[in-house]
Design goal:
The complex is a heterodimer of chains A (150) and B (222).
Chain A (H helix, E strand, L loop, with lengths): L7 E5 L3 H12 L3 E6 L4 H4 L7 E4 L5 H6 L7 E4 L4 H14 L5 E4 L3 H9 L3 E3 L1 H14 L13
Parallel strand pairs in A: 1-2, 1-4, 2-3, 4-5, 5-6
Chain B lengths: L1 E5 L3 H11 L6 E6 L2 H11 L3 E3 L5 H6 L8 E4 L4 H15 L3 E5 L6 H6 L5 E2 L1 H12 L5 E7 L4 E7 L20 E8 L2 E4 L11 E6 L4 H8 L3
Classes of the chains: A alpha/beta (150), B alpha/beta (222).
Chain lengths: 150, 222
């Protein structure tokens, strides 16, 4: 990427997570194209959305091409299906030779295994577990009166 | 032989039934995700069917994938799932043979990209049969041997074809191609050097993918 040219990102899956990633990257000056198979997904991006939007499934190579995967600097894969995400991420890496692919995987076991295969997986479930653990530990638990011994 | 089958639809259930038929002596575990289907299958297959999502590692573990099975067959209705099941079987558990169903032929390229073979696509097979019965093209793909990087095609010699009236040994066939057989008036024979091609012959050829145009020029000239 050269100076002055905006960094291009492709966000596949424009649900609660994907749409916010798309919006925040755009806010930071990235040129963002979102892909989703449902047209309603576009409404999540709001009326002021100036980025791209391609209607279609992430498994469809023509859709990926139309969304500009060939010259995207980064690809974020966040549909609601773990297996779809795993396949789309590998297609982006291996077929389109994209160097920066990040992929959301809800299942911790698959997230860990595919990380060993070289995918940059992000697992919100693991994040939730550790945050919940931390929050539970931080609770102020009243000290109990010692049971009197008679 | 121990076979793990993911997906208890018509294909999965029939595969299990065939493998378990008396005399075969195979061991089968069938994994089905939908409870209603699982309960129906359990009547027939009892402990040999398990309930669960076969793309989840703990489900595969429970089904004995770590042994590992001789073959893992992924025949669910979702191509993504079939791909991931095969990939987990091979890469995580070292399963030697995987077989995947391709529901949407457009996804074939993804299976190839990730090195998943053998694959079976009913749609693609039926399309090839339709082509065979009602040829729209002069060169019909009958069979792809992906692992071998070869394919078998069929051509029909018409009376203006450059190959008509020539012996096989006189044809300048492209390197990486060979004629297999000639079918004439409903009878087939193996193509040898002295076989003479005649108008109306249906010819089977084996070749490396990408050699079709050269072969077409030698046999049909279009």
């Amino acid at each position: 990427m050269s100076y002055g040219e905006p960094v291009k990102a492709l966000v596949i899956g424009c649900g609660r997570v994907g749409s916010n990633v798309a919006l925040q990257l755009a806010e930071e000056g990235w040129e963002v194209t979102a892909v989703d198979e449902k047209e309603e997904a576009l409404t999540r991006l709001g009326e002021k959305w100036r980025g791209g939007f391609v209607l279609g499934h992430g498994m469809d190579v023509d859709v990926l091409r139309e969304a500009g995967i060939e010259d995207a600097d980064a690809v974020v894969v966040a549909t609601n299906g773990d297996n779809t995400n795993l396949v789309v991420a590998q297609v982006a890496m291996k077929r389109f030779d994209n160097q920066c692919v990040v992929v959301r995987i809800l299942d911790p076991a698959r997230a860990d295994f595919y990380q060993t295969l070289g995918l940059r997986t992000v697992c919100p479930t693991k994040a939730a577990i550790s945050e919940l653990m931390e929050a539970a530990r931080a609770c102020e638990i009243p000290t109990r009166e010692p049971v009197p011994t008679s | 032989m121990y076979v793990l089958i993911a997906g208890g639809g018509k294909i999965g259930a029939n595969l299990a039934r065939n493998l378990l038929r008396d005399g075969h002596g195979h061991e089968v575990t069938l994994i089905e995700q939908r409870r209603d289907r699982y309960e129906r299958l359990e009547h027939e297959f009892e402990h040999q069917v398990q309930l669960g999502d076969a793309t989840e590692i703990h489900v595969l573990d429970r089904a004995g994938i770590a042994r590992p099975p001789d073959v893992v067959v992924a025949v669910t209705g979702d191509d993504e799932d079939n791909l991931i099941i095969c990939q987990l079987a091979r890469e995580k558990y070292g399963v030697g043979k995987v077989v995947a169903r391709v529901n949407d032929p457009r996804n074939q390229a993804h299976f190839d990209l990730l090195g998943i073979s053998a694959t079976v696509s009913a749609t693609a097979s039926i399309m090839a049969l339709i082509e065979h019965e009602v040829p729209e093209h002069d060169l019909i793909h009958l069979l792809e041997l992906r692992k071998e990087n070869l394919e078998i095609v069929e051509v029909q010699i018409d009376k203006n074809a450059p190959a008509a009236g020539k012996r096989v040994e006189k044809l300048k066939l492209p390197e990486g191609s060979r004629l297999i057989s000639i079918t004439r008036n409903g009878r087939s024979e193996i193509a040898i050097g002295s076989t003479e091609l005649q108008p109306g012959d249906q010819v089977l050829a084996i070749l490396q993918p990408g050699k079709e145009d050269e072969l077409r020029r030698v046999l049909l000239k279009n």
